[in-house]
Amino acid sequence: MTYVQQAYRTIKARILENRYQPGHQILEQHLADDLGMSRTPVREALIRLQDDGLVEVIPRRGMRVVPLSPEDMREIYEVLTALEVAAVEIAARRPLAAEDLAPLDSALQAMKTSLATNDLNGWAKADARFHKALLALAGNKRLVAMAATLADQVHRARMITLRLRPPPVKSIEAHSEVLEALRGGDGARASEGHRRHRRESARLLLDLLNYYRLPHL
Predict the structure, then answer these.
(1) Taking the domains of the chain in order of start, what are their residue ranges?
(2) Tens digits of per-residue pLDDT, 129-163?
(3) Contact (CB, 8 A) for 52 and 2
(4) Which of 16, 28, 146, 210 falls between 20 and 30 A from 136, CA-CA?
(5) CA 193 to CA 84: how far, in whole Å?
(6) Does domain 70-211 have CATH number 1.20.120.530?
(7) Can you give the pLDDT at residue 210?
(8) pTM
(9) Of 128, 84, 137, residue with least CA distance to 108
(10) Nearest to 68, CA basis, from 177, 143, 152, 125
(11) How far apart are CA 21 and CA 115, in angstroms?
């Protein structure tokens, strides 16, 4: 792994885990010192993160974590829902073997186990794995790349609101429905179920933002 990749992954993880919260600013030199590397790979990593929509690079002042407004989240969910539903529709047209669906099975089981032990962070990570595996089933690299940035932004929002929402029982039920529909070759049921799930997730998040009067994430 190069220094640029290392810096990119470390800074990104801190943003997604909300160790660097929305609006957080840090000097490039301080980041470099913290990561134990020179400023050059850090600067290149920050440019990549800016392209991902996660940070704003500020000349001579390092970077600032980009806050997302409720309107931003509404738009992100609309686009991500369309991309994921398209992935489900493409995948459903292919013959799917048990090994193709194994990553979904594994992620779903991890979601159930995490919820049973009240490990919400574990549930969120397993949920992200499920959606990533679902996109991969389409076998379309461009679709996966387009959805990846939006998925990261949704993950950020999920981690901030994770303990404000009801236990994600319905989310697990929705994921199970999509998986079983794909296993049974029912593309229409799988795509409609996933569309319904994503719309419900967006509604829940936006309701939380309004209820708790959170101006940004």
Answers:
(1) 3-65, 70-211
(2) 999 999 999 999 999 999 998 998 888 888 888 89
(3) no
(4) 16
(5) 11
(6) yes
(7) 86
(8) 0.88
(9) 128
(10) 152
(11) 25
